[in-house]
Hints:
By secondary structure, the chain is an alpha/beta fold. Among the domains are: 19-90, Arc Repressor Mutant, subunit A (Orthogonal Bundle); 221-386, ATPase, nucleotide binding domain (Nucleotidyltransferase, domain 5), CATH 3.30.420.40. Helices cover 45% and strands 19% of the residues. It has helices at 2-39, 44-51, 55-67, 131-148, 184-192, 201-212, 271-275, 277-290, 295-299, 308-316, 320-344, 359-370, 376-380, 393-407, 420-427, 436-439, and strands spanning 42-43, 71-76, 86-90, 96-102, 106-112, 118-125, 153-160, 163-165, 170-174, 179-182, 196-200, 221-226, 230-236, 239-240, 348-352, 383-386. Helix 1 (2-39) packs across helix 3 (55-67), helix 2 (44-51) packs across helix 3 (55-67) and helix 8 (277-290) runs antiparallel to helix 11 (320-344). Zinc ion is lined by residues 253, 263, 265, 267, 270, 272.
Amino acid sequence: MNNINTMQQNTSDSLLEKATRQHTKGHNSRLVLRTIYEYGEISRAGLARLTHLTRATVSEVVSDLIELHLVEEVGQGSVAVGRTPTLLSVVDDARQVAAISVTNDQVRGALVNLRGVLRRDFSRTLPSLDGDTVLATIYSLVDELIQAADRPLLGIGINTPGLIDTAAGTVVRAVTFGWVDLPLRALLQERSGLPVYVANDSHSLALAEYMFGPGQGTPNLVVIKVGLGIGAGIVIGGHLYAGEGYGAGEIGHLVVEEGGERCKCGNQGCLETVASSAMILRRARALAEADPASLLHRLAVDAAALTLADVAAAAEAGDEGARRIIAATGRALAVVVASLVSVLNVRRILITGRVAALGEQLRVAVCDELAHRALPALVQGTAVEVAAMSPDAPLLGAAAPLLTYELGLERLMQRPPLPRAAVEQATWAGTSALTAKDYDA
Ligand SMILES: [Zn+2]
């Protein structure tokens, strides 16, 4: 009896050891790849220094990565004395991700490389919002992307509006398309045989900003997307926080005005009833129609054609009505931003989407109100920005989980800063000026 037990013990020990060795190897391999990815060009000695792995381990791991065509030798570095080291770099086009972003009017897909550069870009207008039609459109785009891929595919990343169980890859509920408990990952995996990651659209934007955004990143940030709807993505410690029920960042229905306007959710005075792009425009149009002498009226040939850019221009030129609208929008957003800053103590909040057209004036309005709504020390340490993201951001956010979970690539924050222009060229290449419609449903 004892003998058998001992034998079993030995067998499981050796299996465990083997598994541990494999795990360690996998861990080292991801660590080395991630470090090369973050530093751009680096020598084996530099890798050993940064990763605290031995030179021998680094050499072994690098050989494997070169064999997988993920890493290449790119030339010689320089040293004051001794042998010049060979520099290593990640092969940016070694793999591709089939990224798909579903909005209320189109399904857009692209092949994205390891640096977030779009290699091929496809899109389909949705003929209807019927759930089956949308799914069929996604299928045909997936087939087309797989066909067009000229590098090994890491997998498929897809985002859509709605409540997404990211662990199961299920769309719990997407009202627009009538989807309830749609097993999107399972369906796409069955069709393609590839790993699939499903995410909510606002959550994806936060990941895009974290992974590929210009400038020095921070591992903690919130991206608030304000369009027809309002949602936020929360990245904490470099990882998306989706919430226990996958609804983290569903801030559109926080009540910001007691006894305010009735919302489609049934409550009154929700953030969306004050700050959504449609509500801002509705108020601006009413003002323009009511006062033919106003700048708002003169800027818009037809009140119905009034845009958020017109509202910003009118306010800039001194139109009191336009200024009041932006101030009210800023106040409502500040109520929510104050909560986020106080609960999470994040240092960076990016407000994006259609309201980015209101620019600096909206930022000032949010910050003015924020100063009275949260602990000054917390507010002072928080950067609030109002800016448009690249129209490619939803696709980059869809691709990001594949890079992180399949290859271990993520942003390290302790690197020396790169010149901003170089970062933009490397990560946002191929993008053009913003058109809100391109990325904002
Ligand atoms: Zn509501």
